[in-house]
Amino acid sequence: MPNYAPRSHVFVDESKSNDYYIAASAVAPNDVNETRKSVRGLMLPRQKRLHFKDEKDSRRKQVLKSFSDLGVEVSIYVASGLKDKEARPLCLSALAKDLPRCEVDRLYLEQDASTLVIDKKVLRNAFAEYPHSPSYIFPSASEEPLLWIADAVAWCHQRRGPWIQRVAPLVDSRVRKIT
Predict the structure, then answer these.
(1) pLDDT over threshold 80, residue 173
(2) DSSP output for 56-95
(3) Count of domains for the chain
(4) What is the domain-level CATH number for residue 128?
């Protein structure tokens, strides 16, 4: 189980180009506004958001260093050998089952109209057995800069090789493989 701090806010994004990765970055509630401001400050002129797949490698390295300095911890959930529509609910369910046990307060998932109905159902089912379950919302990536950290970590794990080492300072102790 991840080490989410009680009452933390968790920001979720995925990468889905071979295996399916969900990254969940945790930020302490008292740090959310300042961390948001720091992450938003990494945008280049005329950028509406940071999207790791669109950045050059030199910029990716710079952004990862800045993210590492923020004290954010990211958990990774991965499903291999499945279609996206099967892998996403499995990863999301595993994440959702970890959150109430850790007393996470709020969950942010990047808005995706194609998965919204299923995502809500998975979360409702996963949270049903817990007396404390987090509230959850679905902002767009341009509305919520803290989703960009999860995007970067998921992208790095998807790319493998040296990118996993570069993102290691952000990631908690292990990748959770979902079967």
Answers:
(1) no
(2) -HHHHHHHHHHHHTTT-EEEEEEE-SS-HHHHHHHHHHHH
(3) 1
(4) 3.30.420.10
